[in-house]
Design brief:
homodimer; 386 residues; alpha/beta; Rossmann fold; 2 domains; two-stranded antiparallel ribbon; 9 helices
Chain lengths: 386, 386
């Protein structure tokens, strides 16, 4: 697997007190950094995402996960902006994580990879930005767990973020989301190939448990409406009783399309993702709670922040419901910050931020154009188009 | 385990074509059957429920699952009505199911237990009603999968059901619910103690997989609000870093209360429920689709039905959302049936039907009193109280 990356030999200290050294951070860039280094946008990827925002995934060969949003002339316009996306700390696409060989040993970190937080994940990204000599980012943008990173950027490094777009996210991980993550973790632990976390030493992966974990996650990314429209109660061809049988309406021994879809999603996922990475990153999400880190006062997190925010939610997102985005927007407002808040009408659930949603595209383009004017960046070719 | 049951030596034919013989149906009754045998109410239990509606569970010792609803002077008043609840076919509390020894063999049915449907489940209940010499039930009542049985009663045996109360249910199993069930099934299959379904022969149970299945289910029974109110992001005592540590806000190595609660629910469940029963009954739910069994016309299912219906949903139930109950009520109405529809405001999710909800209690009491007057039953002591 060929990836761009930077190695920091001295590594970095983590919030838990341990030090990761050396630290490698893998990344992709799109567009060109301006001579003033004032046009950089960091895109933060979601839980099981990666740095291949707008270029094909080296394992699956699929197009970049946000290639409809990031590119020449697209809402995040790479003719105008320099886009950087790093694989998160703890990930498995080139950045140091549980699959990385641990220095001074002949084994990967595996289950000994330390617990990490959003602060650690963002601190690793800061090292890359420093490496590029960028003082202030024009913007940080991210959906879902990418939104948690965006909020962490804007509060831990306020002076380095001109504009921020937390999308389909929340200022804290809810009890329900912790609960779903815990189901996923227990499914991994229950796999016979888990071996108490030592699966790497046994040359296996807990593929079935990881697949179940992914299946749980996948349902939460969609909406009931989306699943109904996509599959409804359709039966997979070839698994139904004869059409004249009185059982034709019932898939005895058969399978619903939605089941085979989920199974495919689950088993496919295990080709590209590591179980320890899954556990490490899901834990980092569960830890995230911006308010409690500021004495239970979410507004206090934004007291000194002059970043311009655009908070975006999707109406049918039940993983990160609109109420949580509204709470965030209210807190920024209460702290005297700049914030606009948009709820996009969509029936496609949490995943809507990755899909064709024209209102969302217009929101991203409009916010970036407006912020670019305030930042004094040269005008874009579509600056007046929206 | 001591249970009341009836054995039907000739068994019963199933919709799939197989015959289960002998058939044992375990049940509990509360109250007294009137001399005219016109005061019987069948209560249908939910997926993992049982016949112990209002008496302690013989395995867990816990009070009956609806003891706040069923009893002397309660909304389903056992001073007035004769209540019958049977353990569903395929269950594991005394009714023939996968844990039952298969006649002519020295093994339980196990993975060879045939696929069953709601029609089969209700047909087994009909045998018990026949045994009691009851021609027409005063009412059939059930929540969740109990509601699917209620609808099956009212459509397969319309002339035998005077009134019906489908609660927190749907005329079909949605794609999302099939998806959650499939995750649960895959979790069971992934357990090393599953042994291709032959766990009984190995003297083990796939307890971890079954626990994960239960954890998934349990989340879907609650609401985000209920989980937040009950647990929020609370940490289990004794698992937190020292309070003065900079990590005090983060449960490194610790555990959220919601996780330990779910784990407890999961592992507790495996003491009282069989994995094959779980698979068999979850499949029966997935098969359920009243509309498609009537050529895609849900109203057609109710064309000849003169049963009085009261359809009840709960506003925060996302497993069986109000829209599905509304669709049901509309179809009955379209078929010229008697139907009232009540959405109870509650933020406790699907489980609300089992919990203290005064509006719901009033609805049940009011509907039964009204129906009893129409049925010409003697007045109850609280007939004018509501």
């Amino acid at each position: 697997m060929e990836v761009q990356s930077i190695i920091f030999p001295n590594g970095m200290p983590l919030q838990c007190g341990e030090v990761i050294a050396p630290l490698e951070v893998a990344y992709q860039t799109y567009g060109t950094l301006s001579p003033k280094r004032d046009n950089a946008i960091v895109i933060c990827h979601a839980f099981t995402g990666d740095q291949f925002v707008a270029s094909p995934h080296p394992v699956t060969g699929k197009p970049g996960w946000w290639s409809r949003m990031v590119g020449p002339g697209l809402p995040i316009d790479t003719e105008r902006f320099f886009v950087i996306c790093t694989n998160v700390l703890g990930g498995c696409m080139g950045t140091t994580g549980p699959t990385t060989m641990r220095a001074g040993t002949d084994k990967p970190w595996g289950k000994d990879f330390p617990p990490i937080t959003m602060h650690d994940i963002v601190a690793a990204q800061v090292k890359v930005i420093d490496h590029f000599g960028i003082e202030q980012l024009f913007a940080v943008i991210g959906g879902s767990m990418g939104g948690m990173q965006t909020l962490t950027w804007a509060t831990d490094y306020a002076e380095r973020v001109f504009a921020a777009m937390p999308i389909a996210t929340s200022p804290f991980q809810s009890a329900q989301n912790i609960a779903f993550n815990e189901v996923s973790r227990q499914a991994i632990y229950a796999d016979p190939d888990w071996h108490g976390g030592d699966y790497q030493a046994h040359g296996v992966i807990p593929a079935r448990g990881l697949a179940v974990a992914r299946m749980v996650g996948h349902i939460t990314y969609l909406s009931e409406e989306a699943l109904t429209r996509k599959f409804g109660r359709e039966i997979r061809p070839g698994t139904m009783p004869a059409p004249n049988s009185p059982l034709a309406a019932l898939p005895f021994g058969g399978m619903f399309q939605v089941e085979s879809y989920l199974q495919y999603q689950g088993s496919n996922f295990t080709r590209r993702f590591d179980a320890h990475s899954y556990l490490t990153i899901s834990r980092a999400m569960d830890f995230f709670d911006l308010g409690s880190e500021h004495g239970g006062n979410l507004a206090a997190a934004f007291q000194q922040v002059r970043t311009r925010f655009c908070v975006v939610s999707f109406s049918s997102d039940w993983l990160f419901p609109t109420a949580q985005s509204r709470m965030l927007a209210r807190a920024i407002n209460q702290a005297g910050g700049h914030v606009s808040f948009v709820e996009i009408e969509s029936d496609r659930g949490h995943d809507a931020f990755l899909l064709e949603e024209p209102d969302f595209d217009r929101t991203v383009r409009g916010f970036l154009n407006g912020a670019a004017r305030h930042a004094g960046l040269p005008e874009g070719r579509d600056d007046h188009a929206v």
